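User: I'm putting together a teaching handout on how sequence relates to shape, and I'd like one worked example. Could you take 3-aminobutyryl-CoA aminotransferase from Herpetosiphon gulosus, show the sequence you're using, and then write out its predicted structure as tokens right after it?

Assistant: Happy to. First the sequence, then the structure tokens directly below it.
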Amino acid sequence: MSAAQLPKVSGEALNLTKSMELLAQAEAIVPGTTQSLMKRPEQFAYGSFPVFIDHGDGALVTDVDGNQYIDFICGLGATTLGHNHPAVVEAIRNNLDKGLIHSLPTEVELRATQALIDIIPNAEMARFFKTGADATSAAVRLARHLTKRERIITVGYNGWHDHFMYYTPGVPAVLSQYTEQVSLMAPHEKPNLIAAINKHGDQLAAVLLSMPYKHCLDTEYLNEVKAACHAVGALFVLDEVVTGFRLALGGAQEFYGVDADFVCLSKGIAAGMPLSAIAGPKKYLERLSDLQVSTTFGGEMLSLEVCYEVINVYRNTNYFEHVTKLGQRLREGVNAKAEALGVALRVCGYDAIPFFAFAPDMPTHARLMEALLGTLAKRGVILRRDVNFLTSAHTIEQIDFTIEAVAQGLQELLDRGIIESTNGKEQVAG
């Protein structure tokens, strides 16, 4: 492996001068400083973590101050093939002169749709949008239309639109009557979803389920949820915005052998280009034509060209085996180092979507992960506080580099008294 594939680091405090200058500008003109809540500085380690990225290549990114990092944030999970992947770059370059969007449909809409339904279990039709929230909102409207009911149950984060974030400022209070959010963050919460389905009974249009990332569900449970939905006449919808194109070629449906009524997809669908979709059987999806579900940019050509090419990459390479193998190595390596130190940190969940868990209560977890993220950034690794991502561009050497960085970062936090050891060890074995 060439040295260029590992970050150049000093281990000293980062120079973040330009990042902080740009942040000051952003605070003056951009509400929330950036376009996504999950990219705000307070989501990471303010003052010891980069704020602005300049460019990326493969699994490495460089911030505006010239610091390099192995990237496990990966565009919040969108860049499944890493940064600057040839399939993405060439699809854009080879089709740019055709235009971006036209006044009538284009052939690539059909080609990309067919490629998608060829790999998604039970999909016979699909419609494209731009963001995950577009797709999940279309799914909610379709479910309400099909069932002639209004209430929904949501699991996990399904987007920022009113029917999902009914408890936030600016949303009419009446919407809380139509949505119930059920947590599946811990295994002991699993019965709560079945109980909620039975409680709402003939008022329920659909359950929209995004897989929890801290622990893995199982086929038996998902079939139980589906059966409970169908028993009351509701639809079982999988939000695969994150799990799609990560767990298996056909997503969680293929991974678990479970058939949803329809699914929502985004992020990896075009490896970072803005695209999302809803896909499923014709008997359901054809009813979208009854609805005012329409978007100008759903037919934007470059994203669709990239989608088509990226699906070919997924189908014709060892992508899924690769990210799973790397995730397993990361999980086993970090957990062994943390255990040797007597530190509570553990990597858990799906290997392709590693979840870093420090403590069961969120305030303690957030505080400790913020400290760890700061120590890792100066060692050339950037992580999120919880869910992270592997890509086709990550290598075994980068995973091993990261495991050692985590071990060194934990040792630093022990030395500084920020975390405590349960076994009194002062050095990392190996």
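A couple of points you could highlight for students: The chain has two domains: 3-71+318-415, 86-316. The chain has a mean pLDDT of 95.
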